[in-house]
Design a protein that fits this description.
alpha+beta; Rossmann fold; 8 strands; acid phosphatase activity; transmembrane helix; Acid_Pase_AS; membrane; His_Pase_clade-2
Length: about 425
């Protein structure tokens, strides 16, 4: 998906770091936004034939350009600017996939997408993930060391084929066997991928029933601000209902159709003619807004993204006080879904309204500085064409001391998730959708 020639990649070498505003996005701005992703998708629609040719050329030169495209000119050393990297958390969305869902009037509703299947990684997605593994190897080579050691590195995904496969591909690029770990002709070694059953997921999707979350979401949707946005989008809802045969009643329904079209487009099938008037432009704003609406405020984030953040805080604190087990654990890889990324970054208040595209990556780096202070740096990589850019957590510096970060996020870390969720036993919690 993201390939370019050497001369194109130079413009990204001096990519400026960005500071993300902590202000809650105004619904009107989100619905009216035309982010870079809009133009990039539109370009794909307007020049699909040229893009197919470009992809073929890019595949032929990928080995030559890999070092430049993946940003191999930057190596993160263990000691950097008077601080030492102590722990790494990588949180990602899975790679490019085939459609996971459809709609009644979808011309591809009976397509098996053989031999890939529904909701599975495409070849483009597989290559991208493998290259991301190479990127991690380059960026963190000194920190990770040459050999895979299970006490040092832990990988987890949701219990979904495409996320498990994503971890395997990243690991293949990140941990090629060296010397004593070489077991045969393949430059590959098996590395465990951990997961929880979907209905018990309490980390990357948080799918266990939580009445408090849905009660708060209902309250947000009933507010005057959000109801006005529903009214503004009603014509779009009605149009999509008529065209697709799917009842489109809210922003989540728009996101569902958008995601299907995005996946079909990524698989290089020709989208139906009606999409020219709606996809991506008219559907992009409501799709982005659906992600924000599902992580609207601290109370909602506390019960979603706050669960993963609490786990990460536990890792940081046990690393700092020397109680982590195994004692040498230093790196975690988590691969989930679009909501995994949005929920965590909304919880940290560093989410700039955008489409969480395939393979979007958050890097959380724990350092110890020369004074013995532990602190965190946050990076976002939303394109494989650029280096990760540093984010600033509101109220803190780019290097955010751990104790300060703990105070800044205390309102979004659940004390007892089960007790906080079970506020009304009579509330009928809706069945989770997806992934």
């Amino acid at each position: 998906m993201y390939c370019c020639k050497k001369k194109q990649s130079r413009q990204y070498k001096k990519h400026r770091q960005r500071t993300i505003s902590s202000n809650r996005p105004q619904a009107s701005k989100v619905l009216g936004s035309r982010k870079n992703i809009s133009s990039s998708i539109a370009e794909r629609r307007l020049g699909s034939r040229n893009i197919l040719i470009a992809m073929a050329i890019a595949t032929a030169i990928v080995v030559i350009t890999l070092g430049t495209v993946m940003g191999f000119n930057t190596v993160l050393t263990e000691t950097n600017e008077d601080k030492e990297l102590k722990m790494l958390h990588v949180i990602m969305r899975h790679g490019a996939r085939t459609p996971a869902d459809t709609y009644p009037n979808d011309p591809f509703i009976n397509n098996t997408f053989y031999p890939v299947g529904w909701g599975q990684l495409t070849n483009e997605g597989k290559l991208q993930l493998y290259e991301i593994g190479h990127y991690f190897r380059h960026r963190y080579n000194n920190f990770l060391g040459e050999y895979y050691w299970p006490d040092e590195y832990y990988a987890e995904s949701t219990d979904v084929d495409r996320t498990k496969a994503s971890v395997q591909l990243i690991n293949a690029g990140l941990w090629p066997p060296k010397t004593i770990q070489t077991w045969g002709p393949l430059e590959w070694q098996p590395i465990p991928v951990h997961s929880e059953p979907l209905n018990q997921d309490m980390l990357l999707l948080v799918r266990k029933p939580c009445a408090a979350y849905h009660i708060e979401r209902d309250s947000v949707i009933a507010s005057e601000e959000i109801q006005s946005k529903f009214k503004e989008s009603q014509n779009l809802f009605d149009d999509l209902t008529t065209i697709t045969g799917k009842i489109v009643k809210d922003f989540d329904d728009v996101q569902d159709i958008f995601s299907t079209l995005r996946a079909e487009e990524s698989f290089n099938v020709t989208l139906p003619e009606w999409t020219r008037n709606y996809y991506p432009d008219k559907m992009l704003g409501p799709t982005i807004f659906s992600y924000i609406l599902n992580a609207w405020n601290d109370k909602m984030n506390r019960l979603k993204g706050g669960v993963l953040l609490k786990k990460i805080f536990g890792d940081w604190e046990s690393r700092a006080d020397g109680t982590i087990s195994p004692t040498t654990r230093k790196a975690f890889l988590y691969v989930g879904h679009d909501s995994t990324i949005v929920n965590l970054m909304r919880t940290l208040k560093v989410w700039d309204a955008q489409l969480p595209d395939y393979s979007i990556t958050i890097l959380l780096e724990l350092y110890e500085d020369s004074s013995g202070t532990y602190g965190v740096e946050v990076y976002l990589r939303n394109s494989t064409l650029i280096q990760p850019f540093k984010l600033t957590i509101p109220g803190c510096d780019e290097f955010c001391p751990l104790e300060e970060l703990k105070q800044l996020t205390k309102n979004v870390i659940p004390d007892n998730w089960d007790e906080e969720c079970n506020v009304d036993e009579s509330y009928n919690v809706p069945e989770p959708g997806g992934p």
